[in-house]
Amino acid sequence: MPQILILDDRGTNQRVLSRLAASIEPDITVVSFGDPHLALEWLATHDADLIITDFKMPNLDGAEVTRRLRSMPRTAEVPVIVVTVHDDRTFRLLALEAGATDFLLAPVDHVEFRTRVRNLLALRRHQLASKRQAERLQLDLETSERLRTDLTRESREALAQVIDTVHALVSAADRDGRLVFVNLAQAEAVGRSPADLVGCDVTDLFGAERGAFARELDAEVFATGQALPGFEESVVWHDGTRHDLHTTKAPLRDAAGRVSAVLSTSIDITNRKRAEERLRYLAQHDPLTGLPNRAYLGELLDGRCGHGRRAEDGLALHLLDLDRFKAVNDALGHQAGDRLLVQVARRLRATLREGDVVARLGGDEFAILQQDIAGASDAGHLAGRVLEAFRKPFRIGRRSISISVSIGITVYPDDAAGAEELLRNADLAMYRAKAAGRAVFSFFDPEMDAAAQQALRLEAELRRALARREFELVWQPQISLRDGRICGAEALLRWRHAEHGVILPAQFLNLAEDTGLIAPITEWALATACAQGVAWQTRRPGGLRISVNLSPSLFANRDVRGMVVDALAASGLDPSLLDLEITERVLLDKLEDAAATLRSLREVGVAFSIDDFGTGYSSLTYAKSLPVRRLKVDQSFVARLDTDRADAAITGAIINLAHGLGMDAVAEGVETAEQLEALRRLGCDEVQGYFVCAPISAEELTAMLDADAAPVTTA
Fold it and tell me: Concatenated DSSP letters for 509-561?
């Protein structure tokens, strides 16, 4: 039964590799060690068919372990796999020079691990079979005086019958380089018969060049009396096909113990090598488009960035992101999206010069490495050609699909000192192109990096702000135009920064959404607002309606219903007093899912308002079918209400739409008496803004409620 030894100083790695090895065949025995010295002591008295060792260990590294294994008779020919986290050519060369058979990158790919171990175990079985056959042949030679001195025709035929059963190419040569015997497989490889080859020079079997090399190796075996470690070679058979062989050389001794011949055994490993090449290809290429992948591009950049210092050897990296690709996937399905990506890859290839490289980095993101450019103008010309290539629609079945691309460009060596920086800067430039309106290209400039660094610092501070309770709520009263009294209050978030003072939401909410911090911030705001609402509920008959804004991003990744219900349960607030403000963006991506969430919360008793109404999309489509109580007229319309007839008409239409649907209309951003009067004439139900009342603390609003006073006279 096969026995595998695992050597790794980390217990977790031992267990993972042991389980993987044991799963390959039912009768495999796995032995593991954490100490290289203990492993070497064990191997001095025990056999192993395969050794898997970590490269970096505190006592002995993988290279030294491999060298010691090759110096021990028991392990001289045992296959050795070195596992390393370093995807670096230097480490691979160290391992191979020490005598490693193969190597794997950690963490290991399970499929690749099993394939490589299975192949090496098969190789070891062939090695042992050949060795046992050689031992039997040697025994025959030792016990047969007639065979030692003069191999007759009959004995050669008998010997050939034995070794012909071995699935390997077998031959033996004496000190003069004459072939003592050749098995059928070896003879067929050169298109001759075994009988024709026995007695011939090894050059008749292997050719002049390979024959001379074989003589050198045989001479070493005759001189040392020791078998040579196996090696790989590539040969062409008589039919013109190329084969990869794993060859071993071992001494054959006569009755006196002298080396009388050298046994050469070659196993055909062509299929294994092709499988390995396929694995390497898959590791460096995107299976969908056939383009190089991110790993390949990274290696290429690492190699080129050391050679691009001269102007004529400069290069540009273009990072491409398809605009609104998600909409294609959502509308037509992922299969259509994949077909589109294949066509995009084909069109990009056709746009490039010879020597330029296009890669797919993942999803709808591509990259172009433009080599040997004179300057940024060359990069701009290529980006222009790519944008032009995307103006022609793509055909998916009977559908014509128009899609654009945003491109970020960075130039080496002007913009970056290495591959990692080049990729990062190209990414920054690409996002600048997205922000500029899509279907454009943007060059990197240092201000982008400064902005990115500032964003990182702000993100770190934002995370600390949660822990340090630096957030607070202020309240903007909402006034009924029917009686002039406070009918509600909107909770507005503020960040009281220790160094920068009060920071408004516009300065950090987008970052909070991008980093996922919007969820814990919203949970805090909901809990705090609901608790304050309970305080007003106990002081004022009927309580006070409180409004809390919900970010659209929450609906994509969070259980919004659970978040709201938990806040209500923890505070004890009457659900009818909670008004959740959402924007039309909530309903853009997955209308039905968002609508289902809103309806489930409406059943709990929570009310909803659509904030910034009229500035989004498909307003009339969903306004009539959702459990919404209020439409909030965006302040952009209110600001020009008394000066722009179009904005006045839009505002009036929104108010009429709300009333027609049985909802209230709330105008925000009221800053003048003229705006207030115009809203009253249009029939608006409620207003809020600095003219009515600026955002105030909970304590100030409590005092107003206690006095039952409206902030302004609306009569």
Answer: HHHHHHHTTHHHHHHHHHHHHHHHHHHHHHHSTT--EEEEE--TTHHHHS-HH
5-46 tens-digit pLDDT: 999 988 888 898 999 999 888 889 999 999 999 999 999 999
Q: Identify the CA nearest to 164 among candidates 178, 139, 181.
A: 181
**Secondary structure letter of residue 237 according to DSSP:** -
Cβ–Cβ under 8 Å, residues 550 and 582: yes
Torsion of Cα atoms, 602 then 519 then 430 then 372, to 10°: -140
Q: Distance (Å, rounded) from C-alpha 510 to C-alpha 593?
A: 23
The model's pTM = 0.47
- Does the pLDDT value for residue 484 go beyond 60? yes
Per-residue pLDDT at 88: 66
What CA–CA distance (Å, rounded) separates 530 from 525?
A: 8
Q: Are 665 and 659 in contact (CB under 8 A)?
A: yes
Residue written as token pair 């008793």: 605
DSSP notation for 156-183? HHHHHHHHTTSSSEEEEE-TTSBEEEE-
**pLDDT, tens digit (0-9, with 9 covering 90-100), for 46-69:** 999 999 998 888 878 888 888 899
Domain at 125-273, CATH from 3.30.450.20, 3.40.190.10, 3.30.830.10, 3.10.450.590: 3.30.450.20
More confident residue, 484 or 330: 484
Greater model confidence, 61 or 485: 485
- Express each pLDDT in 653-705 by its tens digit: 889 989 988 899 999 999 999 999 999 999 999 999 999 999 999 999 999 98
Check if the beta carbon of residue 560 is closer than 8 Å to that of residue 516: no
Q: Are 357 and 368 in contact (CB under 8 A)?
A: yes
Alpha-carbon gap, residue 341 to 343, rounded angstroms: 5
Q: What are phi and psi of 640, to 5 degrees?
A: -115, 20
Class of domain 457-707: alpha beta
| CATH code of domain 290-444 | 3.30.70.270
Write the CA distances from 630 to 136, 663, 676, 678, integer angstroms. 95, 5, 18, 19
Domain-by-domain residue ranges, the chain? 3-108, 125-273, 290-444, 457-707
| CA dihedral of residues 343, 349, 350, 353 (deg, nearest 10) | 170
